[in-house]
Amino acid sequence: MAEINHFEYGWITPALSYALSVLGSFLGLICAGRIRTAATGGQRAWWGILAAFAIGGTAIWTMHFMAMLGFAVDGTRIRYDVPITAASAGIAVVAVGIGLAIAGTGRVSAPRILAGGLFTGAGVAVMHYAGMAAMRLNGRLGYDQPRVVASAVIAVVAATVALWLAVTVRRALAITASALVMGVAVNGMHFTGMSALSVHLHDTEREVAGAEVGTLLVPIVLAVVFGVVGLVYALLAAPTDEDRAATAYLDARRGTGAAPVPAGPAATPDPVGLRARSTLARPGTPFPSRRDRAPR
């Protein structure tokens, strides 16, 4: 049995994987909160897709790949099958999207959240072990069944909690705390599943086919950067509650035939009466009499 190192580069890879899971969870929770306040079915679908990409793509799958950068096996190099790796990313996004569709539409209820969490958690577990199956090395992979079951249970519990938070949390502080908790749950599921792995090297050296980690790292990092920027832009460009209220007010005034009240020039502060003094000092302005200047 070969010796396995899950932290070849020390604390860097687990720290980055946790940061990615928190960032994806934070953006995903914000997008999920917009689902229930959306005015049309198209808007709900749009925010659901963005939330699925944020949670499934960034918080779960990208976290998984970043943690795998620190995975090493003595005596063999590791490569990855690109189609299976891409399929594992699609599984994560689709699983989260379906879970949000189950739990986040209609009336919020415990059966909906449990059903969505069960489906999403199973999808996350499939994603994890599909990503492991994409590894190519000079050896055979083995798994400890109890730990595999434990990782699947953690995935279902984490997904259920994530969906519950997605449909109930609204305040910024609560969203931040929830993202931190979700980051712990996602990383806990990953490293529990990784602890179940064992590698038995082949007796003879064999050619290892597939893409190296460095080859996949650049496109994945670019995808994450552009994806996060796109999510932030979508959130900033979306109208707020104040914008919708102002639009409704203007529409109501137009409907009654009343002209919108024009906004006058902003009044500048005049704490010591400079504006009044300048008025008195204009040419042609009569100087007030003693009686007018007397205090009343």
From TrEMBL:
Keywords from UniProt, A to Z, are: Membrane, Transmembrane, Transmembrane helix
Q: Which InterPro entries match?
A: MHYT_dom (IPR005330)
MHYT domain boundaries: 9-200
Where are stretches of biased composition, namely Low complexity? Answer: 255-273
Where in this protein does the record put region Disordered? 255-296
Indicate whether Transmembrane helix appears among the record's keywords: yes
Q: Where, by residue number, does the polypeptide cross the bilayer? A: 15-33, 45-72, 84-106, 113-135, 147-167, 179-201, 213-236
UniProt keyword annotation of Transport present: no
Q: Which PANTHER family match?
A: DOMAIN SIGNALLING PROTEIN, PUTATIVE (AFU_ORTHOLOGUE AFUA_5G11310)-RELATED
How is this protein named in the record? Signal protein
Give the organism, scientific name: Micromonospora thermarum
